[in-house]
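Forum > Structural Biology > Help requests

Title: Can anyone predict the 3D structure of IclR family transcriptional regulator?

Hi all, first post here. I have the sequence for IclR family transcriptional regulator but no way to get a structure on my laptop. I'd be grateful if someone could post the structure tokens.
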Amino acid sequence: MFLKSAENVLDILFLWEKEKAEELGLNEISQLTGINKSTVYKILQSLKNRNVIEQNESTKKYKLGVGLIQLSSHVLKNLDLREIAHPLLKQLAYMCENTVTLGIKSGKNLIFIDRIDGRDNVRFFCDIGKVTPFNGGAAAKALLAHLKEDEIKEIIDDMEHQKFTHKTKDRDEIIKEIEIIRRDGYSISDEEVDIGVLAIGAPIFDYTGAAIGGVAIAGIKQTFTQESFRINKKLLLEYSSMISKRMGYFENK
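Reply #1:
Sure, ran it for you. Structure tokens for IclR family transcriptional regulator below:
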């Protein structure tokens, strides 16, 4: 039933493109899709409430709305980030010999959109497509710390504490850590998501100066000597800065 309902919504949304029409009436949509008029009406009202569909008050016909533009611009922005960052992430993974991940904000969580495995090819939590709360690792914390204050407050207020290990930070600890991350320019996740794994994270900014992503280097904790940590941190900050610059960010802007 759920799958059929989803197919009905998609059939309706793609109808304007299929028919090359600017506006379509309720009866037209029902006839062209084969979906009964009552169901079409309910779907249109739901889409209209989300600005995905608009209704012409004069003709009472429907057309695609600005909500689709908002969705598409969000997708395009994130795809551009991954496309621009990927070659640099590959270089970074090669140079640091550890796994490198890239995540973006998805609602009140972080979702990983890219991952380059390191020398040891160790399987961590952060696979592509994985969603994690903002207390879930270095990339998430680096991004969280550099979001706008109202965004941070909203995320923190609604944060459901997911404890990955006994070292996972709770809400109060995350709040305290935000200022440290801002001061240092990077975050650390010390076995907070996977036991035996250490990660360093840094934010990525766009042309407006807004934080749009978090990149992290993760590896087996035992391999992170004081010197290797220093080198990895230096590489991470250099490459996250390069990605930000390619996204149009200038620090003195």
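The chain has two domains: 2-64, 74-246. The longest helix spans residues 66-96.
Shout if anything looks off.
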